[in-house]
Amino acid sequence: PGEECKFEDVVCVSPPCDPVKVCSPVRCEEDLRTCPDGSTVGRNPEHMCHFFPCPDITPPVICDLECKPGEECKFEDVVCVSPPCDPVKVCSPVRCEEDLRTCPDGSTVGRNPEHMCHFFPCPDITPPVICDLECKP
User: Fold this and answer.
1) Cβ neighbours of residue 4 under 8 Å, at least 6 residues apart?
2) Cβ-Cβ contacts under 8 Å for 123 (sequence gap 6 or more)
3) Residue 126: its pLDDT value, please?
4) What is the CA radius of gyration of the chain?
5) What is d(CA 103, CA 80) in angstroms, rounded to the nearest whole number?
6) Which end of the chain is more exposed for a tag (fewer CB within 10 A), N or C?
7) 3-state secondary structure of 108
8) How far apart are CA 77 and CA 88, in angstroms?
9) Mapped to the 3 state alphabet, what secondary structure does 9-77 carry?
């Protein structure tokens, strides 16, 4: 599997010389299939270059609770007394990545959970106005 028979030319000492049969890895087209979830899959050389299967898609469950700025709706498991028990919708603080952006002045800013984890703005740096007028002593 994953190989195919091909003819390969050989260095010919006394013509005529026939090509030699060799097994070489299957080379599939490099096109991609777009799956229903937006991801892409390539071709599988182990299965006659058919496309790999798309990931299994289960429809998302919508968390539609109205939360305050800086919070997001999430599902939380509950202590289940009589199964089956569905998770409960709750508002939780937004957890942003903890990376930092370096500003032009060398300072750094983090992410703002109240604005979809965009970076906080860099400090306003206006160049100082230099007074270079020669004055009499």
Assistant:
1) 23, 24, 25, 26
2) 103, 105, 107
3) 67
4) 32
5) 49
6) C
7) strand
8) 6
9) CCCCCCCCCCCEEEEEECCCCCCCEECCCCCEECEEHHHCCEECCCCCCCCCCCCCCCCCCCEEEEEEC
Pair 62, 71: CB distance under 8 Å:
no
Contact 26, 4 (CB under 8 A): yes
- Contact in structure between 109 and 120 (CB atoms under 8 Å): yes
In terms of residues, how long is the chain? Answer: 137
**Is 61:76 a contact under the CB 8 Å cutoff?**
no
* Amino acid in the structure at residue 73: C
CA trace torsion 56, 59, 64, 65 (10° rounding): -50
Give the per-residue pLDDT at 41.
93
User: Could you give the maximum distance between any two Cα atoms of the chain, in Å?
Assistant: 102
> How far is the C-alpha of 74 from the C-alpha of 114, rounded, in Å?
16
Question: pLDDT averaged over consecutive 10-residue blocks of the chain (137 residues)?
Answer: 73 83 79 88 83 80 85 86 85 87 90 84 74 66
Q: Which of 125, 126, 93, 127 is nearest to 109 (CA)?
A: 125
Query: Sign (positive/negative) of CA torsion 31, 33, 34, 40?
Result: negative
